[in-house]
Amino acid sequence: MSSSFYRVSTANMYDATLRNLSARQKSLVDLQENLTAGKRVVRPSDDPVAAAQAERALTRISRIQTEQRALDVQRNAIAQAESTLGDAVGLVQEIRQLVVAAGGGALKPEDRKTYANQIQSLREQLTQVINRKDTNGVPLLGALGSALEPFTGPLLSNPDYLFAGLPGQAASGGTSIPTTVDGHAALMFDPVRDGVYTATVTRGAGSSLVTSAITTSNREALDGAQYALAVNTVTVDPVAGTTVVDYKLTKTAKDGTVTTSNVTTAPVKTGQPIPITINEGPDTVMSFSLTGTPAAGDSVSLQPSSSLMGTIDSAIRGITDATDSVAASQAVGQALANIDAGMERLHNMRGYAGELLNRADRITGDQDKRSIQLEADRSRAEDLDMVQGISDFQNASVGYEAALKSYAQVQRLSLFNFIS
């Protein structure tokens, strides 16, 4: 039977023990640092891959916060624009009520002028509202870009309202909405898009001619042309009880080309509205009716209206200049039809502004979900499981304490203690 003896030097044993103590101490310090920081990855060298994932998540979270701040500014601008359109709708409704009241047949010219002055005051307020700016001095209804005052009133060089800007609506993005609303679409009339026309009547002797509101169709064929209708003769058949109107129709195209034609209406029962239809080739582009008592020498001018404000100005002039109820009825009837068309445009653009606000809310919801997802990605990459961390720290602490005690116990051992 053989036995082997291994001799381990005391110095080597002490060195190995000290190395183990140092390693345990370092492990305990690292666990303590992780525990106090609440992170598994305190520095990139701890886990380069996890550190890169956490950094990417933080960068994306920062970008979302920046986009959200910009969206808040955009939302505030659109909210102001929607409120501005609401104020404009309220003013136009008040104007419409006054126009209706000014058409009363029992009113005196002085009364109608009083109504016209009230409408004029509201129109001036409307002009201020539609040129309103946001807190940065940018017009709220500036479309794709405009002057600081987008809507300019009648000038000597141009007797109608103009939109001093580029019509159109900026597109929304995945994380943004426009900061302005298309004021041109809200307040200006386009002959092809809207086809809003105004009829102006000049009456001959003994006439009480009044026209109905103008209805347009096939507006591409109409193309914003102007028309003038001059009554040549009015034939009344007392036996058949019918009326026939013969008139000359003059068309002035957008390019300045003038064409004329003579037209005779179909017999209509006397006292009933006489329908007038204007055609361009096979297409009917305009229709209205003549009411009252037409007479030779009457003329009707049909011109496209360029804006809601221009319509209101025409109503003010017509009501102010009306010398009798017939003239007032003509001015009021045309104004009401065109104001209703303008109200429709305002409501459409206000609804669009409301949808932009809804879109901003949806974007905010999506961004919040992305932020939560990215925060979860960052947490998985670098955060510490506190329960596991506390357990590891306690285990390391107990192990380090046991190592220190065993080392101290060995240090007290000496050969001299066993020499008798």
From TrEMBL:
Coiled coil spans: none
GO MF annotations in UniProt: structural molecule activity
GO biological process: bacterial-type flagellum-dependent cell motility
InterPro entries xrefs: Flagell_FlgL, Flagellin, Flagellin_N
Domain Flagellin N-terminal: start-end pairs: 8-141
Pfam families: Flagellin_N
Family annotation (Gene3D superfamilies): f41 fragment of flagellin, N-terminal domain
Main location: other
Subcellular location: Bacterial flagellum; Secreted
Cellular component aspect of the GO annotation: bacterial-type flagellum hook; extracellular region
SUPFAM superfamilies attached to this UniProt entry: Phase 1 flagellin
Keywords of the record: Bacterial flagellum, Cell projection, Cilium, Flagellum
Family per record: Belongs to the bacterial flagellin family.
Protein name: Flagellar hook-associated protein 3
Native organism: Acidovorax ebreus (strain TPSY) (Diaphorobacter sp. (strain TPSY))
Taxon lineage: Bacteria, Pseudomonadati, Pseudomonadota, Betaproteobacteria, Burkholderiales
